[in-house]
Amino acid sequence: MNDHFYNPRNAAAALWASSAERAARTLNPDLSTNEIRNLPMMRGVYKQLRAMTAGQLLEKPAPDASKEDIAAWLSQHFLIGGTVGVEMKAATDYSDIDPYQLYLYAINYYNDNHDIADFSTDDILGFALCLIIWYIVNQGTAEVAELNLVKDFLIDFVALLPIPGSFLLEFINAEVEALAAAIHAGMGTDADFAYRSPSYTDSHSSSPYVALNWKMPDDAQVIMLGDWGTGMDDAKAFLKALWKKAYQNLPSRQIVFIHLGDIYYCGLPEECENYFYDIFYAVASELSTELAGYSSSHPFDPRPPIFTIPGNHEYYSNGAGYFKMLDKIFTDWNGGNQNKRQRCSFFCLRSNNGRWQFLGMDTGQADHDALSDALRSGADIVPINKWVGDIKDWVDDWPSWVPSWIKSWPESVLQVYYNVVGPHAPALQKDEASWHQDRLKSSEFSGSTILLSHHQLFSQEAKIDYNSPQYLNLNLKKVFSPSFGSTGAWFWGHEHTYAMYKDGQQGLNKGRLLGSSAYEATNENDTPYANNYPNIQFSPDMFNTYYGGQTDPVKIIGQNSSGLLSHAAAILTFDDDTHDVQVDYYTFPAWSQLDTPPTSPSLTLIATESISHDSDDYVSLSASWIGNRQASYKDSHNNTKNFDTESAPSAACFNKMLYVAYRNESNNLAWFSSDIENYKPTASSSSSQNPTWQDHGQIEFGGNAIGTEHSIASLFANNVWYIFYVNTSNHVALITCTVKENGRTWKNVGELLDGSNTIKTTSACTACFYEGKIYVVYLDDDQNSDKSYNVKTCSYDPLQTGTMTAVVRQGILQDSTGKTITGIQVAATGYSGSKGGDDNFMMLVTMDKDGDIKWTKTTDPDSNTSYSEWTIINTTKANSHGSTTTDYLKSSAGVSLNYFRGAIMMVRVDGSQYLKAVVFDLKEQKWYGDDPVDVHANDTSKSAEIAQSSHFPSLAVVPGGLFLIYRGNTNNEIYWCYS
Q: 20 to 30 A from 276, CA-CA: which of 164, 390, 459, 812?
């Protein structure tokens, strides 16, 4: 019978022939299509298909039969049997292919015949392999009880799969030893956990592992991929399209590749070889031919640097394949170039001009337990959350006499489950965390950083940790948030989609998700854009106008006929002139072994953004604090003394000096300062977290102190420190301090005047700088019937000299609806993005007698009625179950305001006298956050504590950060926090 190529018309048979050819191609990647179709394996498939078309059934061949006859008989059992049960055992009797490859054939076959895409959420058999491999690799190291649990789970898991149980039972019980031998042979004799610490050395290296010696050119292009290691045809085509695009756009630029982790299924040596290294090699060869002669002055480079961090899948085999591949990239791809060598699973790559660094971390080593992963997957199939919830609802209806401990047991069961199974937010190894913090120290690197990880810092859709907040990895935030002021962006993968998150969330300028560069995700099963955690929001720039202004992310990302979402990746281009980084995000069609590839798949640009090199442009919608310590100094006898006050102090910064004015115990103005140029806050050293404060005592003129009974307001304009206070006659007055290199000059300007009339108030005033003028905002001295006061302002030109002559607006302030602006405490700040800019404004925030915090703003503070509607500030928050609540904010002691990292930050004092930070997003003109001033959040050795105060605090923006200065809650010492 003719056993040459046969193209069956039966759909199922054609699918089987395609699957068999793909398996043969996987085993023989160097053969041409014609050579593959002449292999004994494929000739046997064609023979069987011809027999089936003729209505014939092949007999079982003798053991010494030809390979074609054996392959034909096995093909018949795979196709006609419709299962992968006993046939797989029979295959081992006739084939020299190892059991691991046979299992991959089983996955292929089953997925092909059940419309399941490989490397998709529906690929249950494929991801069961992760657990089997983990079980095998850890047989010699894991606890016996744990391994028995794995085996029991695998057997129980079979019942959940839509296949006959005989296959996996047979595989687990009879084939595991053969598979184990094959796996260990591929990994070598040492199957121990392969993670390399920063101290790792080998025959190639003896020096400490720090930043790479090779420096990225200042105008380089970086192609960034995440979760790319599937080996699928669309993964290869996507890589080729990105590489070609980058080169043809800018042939003279150095290209650098960065992969954010996950080589499927288990990061075995052959998977890392076949699904990562070999594809890079093949694409490089193809492009070398296609692009030959494209640019005579800048020929195509087939060996650009490749850097990759591992995900959880590389560690299902304990990292053995990943680290072998890492060393192969060093020797074979980079030709043994020590300067380009990434010898550990983390790296630091810097630009030649020292303005940028990529800092890649290894989060995979903390998330390699396939048992917990499988248990969580099992919980998705068997919804334990729903079961417990249903039982709890039933228990809640029990009579009141039933003891509470009985009613609470469903929740207790669920808590035990999550304590064991997780998810647990991955943490870095302690040595690696310290290594990264060293790379981030300003004494070593003064530029901006782009962080890289496999696992997410936060997510809108995925549950990262079973603890609250479920959407946030606090382990990573504690390590890196002290450096968010110099972090331009953080890219991660793991979650199989693409997302540009809202700038500034969790204090991070830009958080970006690139986890869909090859994983076959579907909107139905993966819900990539579900809004489970509204505290985390997408950037309004995520989906722009390239698709005609559509707002549906599924339509914009695109799906093929099988429902697979298009893949995504990014090209980062460094600008040697502006020193900024342009990021272009591309999508590319996805297709699996179930699909016919598109005729001409191409890249589609979906978004473009710029990462500024200037940290002053970075946005922070929440702060991360250290401190909550008393501001103290040494007196002449070397005794430690604290600064005491009965009111709110006021802080301002100029020329790397922090100045604080306050009302001392004698009710007089006093001041102290700190040289913050020498302040080096870190998360690991408590001694370096404490600024050195210098006491300057009372402010006096002619030996006379300046008395006050209220809080202070101060600011710097040019090099002059303006201190506004309410004197003992309840008049607003001013003193100034001119700061020059040769010292400081104090001046008592006196009371503020409206013509010849003094400005009177019975409470503290506030001040801000806006478009060249200083505006003093205060409450008048006539109380309204509701016990509030009308808000008034006066302006002062800082260039004028002599007495303080102010212009007070005629009449009281009103908003655009005619409502009088009143309060019992007021704060103000000005924002000027550019001189005379359309988006400039001055903001007022007031607190009324009920504690409600209201806000309004104006572009023309010299007008009575130019303010926007005066409304209570509210923020939207998510609870632990994902639903949202709207909080209308209150204060027990007022608020403070200042511009910080691309937003207006407000700190309020809540009803329990805890300090809470809220931010106003300038782009969206909305309030976000209301996060506790949670100090020591960056120091894992200390428990968190929330700062408290009985008075409104003061916010001072300093180079690289923000100081919060406030009076204590139960005592009168002055405290500080730093973000």
A: 459
Q: Specify burial of residue 96 (Cβ count, 10 A radius: 0-12, 13-18, 19+).
A: exposed
- Which token pair is 848? 């009324």
pLDDT of 336-384, one tens digit each?
999 999 999 999 999 999 999 999 999 999 988 877 777 666 544 444 5
- The residues pairing with 961 across neighbouring beta strands, listed in sequence order, are 958
Give the pair of three-digit tokens for residue 930.
């209301």
Average pLDDT score over residue span 71-89: 52
Nearest to 482 by CA among 650, 689, 672, 664: 689
pLDDT tens by residue, 168-207? 555 555 556 666 666 766 676 555 788 999 999 988 888 8
- Mean pLDDT, residues 538-563: 67
Alpha helices in 469-571 (DSSP H): 474-480, 523-526, 553-557
Which residue in the block uniquely carries the two structure tokens 């953080």? 490
Cβ pair 686, 745 in contact under 8 A:
no
828: which strand partners?
A: 844
Q: What is the DSSP string of 743-781?
A: EEEEEEEEE-EETTEEPB-SS--EEEEETTEEEEEEEEE
Q: Are 767 and 723 in contact (CB under 8 A)?
A: no
For residue 182, the SS3 value is helix
Average pLDDT over residues 434-461: 95
DSSP letters spanning 833-879 = SSTT-TT-EEEEEEE-TT-BEEEEEES-TTSSS-B---EE-EEEEE-
C-alpha–C-alpha distance, residues 810 and 223, integer Å: 60
Q: What is the pLDDT of residues 21-55, one digit of tens each?
A: 766 776 677 887 778 788 877 888 788 778 776 66
What gap in Å lies between CA 548 and CA 284, rounded to an integer?
35
**Encoded amino acid at 600, one letter:** S
Q: What is the 3-state secondary structure (H, E, C) of 901-935?
A: CCEEEEEEECCCCEEEEEEEECCCCEEEEEEECEE
The per-residue pLDDT for 93 is 44
Q: In which residue are the tokens 């969790």 written?
A: 506
What's the rounded Cα separation, in Å, for the pair 913 and 948?
A: 5
- Residue 292: both structure tokens together: 């030959």
Place of tokens 């064991």: 420
Specify the pLDDT at position 85: 36
Residue 612 to residues 220, 541, 582, 618, 787, Cα–Cα distance (Å): 16, 16, 9, 8, 48
- How far is 326 from 343, CA to CA, in rounded Å? 7
CA torsion sign for 157, 163, 169, 171 is negative
CB 277 within 8 A of CB 269: no
Structure tokens at 695: 């006491």
**Residue (of 55, 309, 358, 30) closest to 195 by Cα position:** 309
Q: CA nearest 695: which of 643, 658, 747, 648?
A: 643
In angstroms, the CA 899 to CA 895 distance is: 14
Quote the tokens at residue 567: 């893949």
Of 164, 196, 5, 14, the closest CA to residue 85 belongs to 164
The pLDDT of 916-939, averaged and rounded, is 79
Q: Is the pLDDT of residue 389 over 70?
A: no
**Could you tell me how many residues make up the chain?**
979
Give CA–CA dist 832/840, Å, rounded.
5
Tokens 């990061």 sit on residue: 267
Number of C-beta neighbours around residue 51 at 10 A: 17
CB-based contact 447:960 (threshold 8 Å):
no
The H or E element containing residue 384 is helix 384-396
Rounded Cα gap, residues 448 and 354, in angstroms? 9
Convert the pLDDT of each residue in 107-121 to its tens digit. Answer: 776 777 778 888 888
Six-digit token string for 363: 């989060």
Cβ count near 912 (within 10 Å): 9
Which pTM does this prediction carry? 0.77
